[in-house]
Amino acid sequence: MPAPPAWMHGFLAIRAMGYTHTTKEMLHMKFPGSLKVALLGLSLLAGSAHAQSASADKYPDHPIKLVVGYAPGGGNDVAARLLAKELASILHGSIVVENRPGAGTNIAASYVARSAPDGYTLSLSSTALAVNVTLYKKLDYDAVKDFEPVAIFAEAPNLLLVNPKLPVNSVADLVAYGKKHPGKLNFSSAGSGSTQHLAGELFKQKGGFEATHVPYKGSAPALTAVIGGEADFTFINIPSSKQLIESGQLKALAIASAKRFPAVPNIPTMAEQGMNDMNVSTWYSIVAPAGTPQPIVDKLNKAVNQAMEQPELRKRFEDLGMAPMAESPAFFKKFLADEIARWRTIVQQSHASVD
């Protein structure tokens, strides 16, 4: 039988010493050279693990910065502020929301990616984190390698909305109208490369009809375009459109999610109307710079999940048209990889680009 490796001797030796000796003391003990190196390495690893654990126990001991890649007042900003307030209470600390809008959230993402991996700079990330990987030809960060997935905490499905004067009452009607009048339909979005834009492109592909994309600077003007007849349809989230639907200024044909949503229970899903795989919801998450200690990631994940289990906060999110979620970092990591792959296909097929 081959002799045990040096690190095994080191491990057994450390166990025999009862972990009571310091690194300095072990360096002065009489061990073979290779064994001394192994002991030193194991000691440093143990010390690092202990330091990380101790750091997590004290975390946070100064304000946490939660960076949002959108201007104040939008869905991402509202979600960030609602969550930050509850998280601060759970963590017994302070959380400051900082808006860094621009470049499709890339300014904020780049800033967080370059920040110290200590748990004190976090990003409120959304679907854009997955979309931008393919949408932008040049990024100064890597969506997978430069971030530590912490938690995914909510999802907001989009609605397929049309001008009430358009003679359609279902997804099938709109598809048939588009095929009957090739080149006549157009759809609005919050901008080129936005999830609304890509949702429209995906809808065209699955429906087999043509429609012209008309980008606007934000969701509000995109909705106004449909109301005024400048655009025929759009995909917009519930918080932005619910009152306009209730007032009759917009007609909702379907919800682009896997199941019906409590805030709008009478609106059927795309799948119910025969169009599968049209889940174009916006999801909301927390990511940290890569290298953030796992104990801190786990502590944050536990706190986020605990926050989303609070009845009052859940109701606030649901009233805004967002479905609360509570998942592990491992789940979120796989989810992000799947989303990057899914949106890569959509972006490539639509030939959308902002560079």
Describe what this molecule looks like in 3D.
The chain is an alpha/beta fold. The chain has 2 domains: 64-156 and 281-350, Bordetella uptake gene, domain 1 (D-Maltodextrin-Binding Protein, domain 2), CATH 3.40.190; 158-273, 3-Layer(aba) Sandwich (D-Maltodextrin-Binding Protein, domain 2). The chain has 13 helices and 11 strands. It has helices at 6-16, 23-27, 33-58, 75-91, 106-113, 128-135, 171-180, 195-207, 219-228, 238-246, 294-308, 311-319, 329-350; strands at residues 64-68, 95-99, 121-126, 147-156, 158-162, 186-189, 212-215, 233-237, 251-256, 282-289, 323-324. The strands form 2 sheets. It has a 6-stranded mixed β-sheet, with helices on both faces. The chain has a 5-stranded mixed β-sheet with strand order 7-6-8-5-9. Strand 1 (64-68), helix 4 (75-91) and strand 2 form a beta-alpha-beta unit. Helix 6 (128-135) crosses helix 13. It starts with 5 loop residues before the first helix and ends in a 5-residue tail after the last helix. 39% of the residues are buried. The model is unreliable at 22-27 (pLDDT under 50). It comes from Bordetella genomosp. 11. Belongs to the UPF0065 (bug) family. InterPro entries: BUG, Bug_dom1.
